[in-house]
Design brief:
Strand content: 5-15%
Structural class: alpha/beta
Number of strands: 12
Number of helices: 10
CATH superfamily of the largest domain: Isochorismatase-like
CATH topology of the largest domain: Rossmann fold
CATH architecture of the largest domain: 3-Layer(aba) Sandwich
Distance between the termini: 19 Å
Helix content: 25-40%
Largest sheet: 6 strands, parallel
Amino acid sequence: MSAELLPIPPWVAPARADEVWRVPYRERTEQAEAWGRRHGIRPAAADERRVCLLLIDCQNTFCLPGFELFVAGRSGRGAVEDSTRICELIYRRLGRITEIVATLDTHTSAQIFHPFFWVDAEGRHPIGGATIIAPEDVESGRWRVNPDAAAVLGRDVAWLQRHTLYYVRRLAETGKYPLMVWPYHALLGSAGHALVSAIEEALVVHAAARRTAPRLVVKGEHPLTEHYSALGPEVLEDADNLPIGRRNHELVEHLLGFDAVLVAGQAKSHCVAWTIEDLLQDVRRRDPSLARKIHLLEDCSSPVVIPGAVDFTDQAEAAYARFAQAGMQVVRSTDLRLWDDG
């Protein structure tokens, strides 16, 4: 029966995706084990067709209204609606999802994309979510490195100033988004850093029912570069051409080892899009036909939209169209093609 569409367990509530609560681990584990026996759900290790669900940054900071960087999309409830559908997918296809890989955006306040890092001539910080720093802004001195941030990082201010100019120029040269100063978000150890409770609960149930464990991937810790993609930072080297990050080749190998990879999470225009872009680069180098393995769940991701400031919806849709043209499959979470064994 594990191949069938399962009911949602009566003791879970995917619709609570906009709330924070403590997941009762022991109770859910025991219930999930019993649920698995009742529905004949086999251990994940027994799967003949191995399916990975890749969840990008399904954290409170992005997914809950009122948190630091809620991804509202144009509907105003985007990430909440996405999280609900992700949970429903996990429960209804509990016997078909072999492994869940979840990434965790992980930051401190003293990073290049947070307000504390920058000051203007009067010592004021930029407004998070409403400030883009272009090369000319650094060249003119409109925005400069905050000496207090340099002290926190143990770096020379002059060197950091040189690095920031190199950094914003490098973003422009490589076709990346310009440097956006975001509100403080995903701070390590904070409530915002945690997975959405409903999704955390779904991972606990999946692990117990399938006799496996989720794979958690931390990203975004280096202070001198953005790190949208789960597979590598925006810029790999500093102003002296010394490495400040690396591609996560191990994760690429792991993902491409599955028969199918389903991609969901936040935000469609940023961390999801750049993760897919990096994965596509590896696919093209290895075998372009592997793109067919990648299924983009278009109803389980939303773009960044900050009313009156920025709207990345069009960029997200253009990226998904480009991925589809490369051979990836853009589908909905209810699409039966996801479970085609052919």
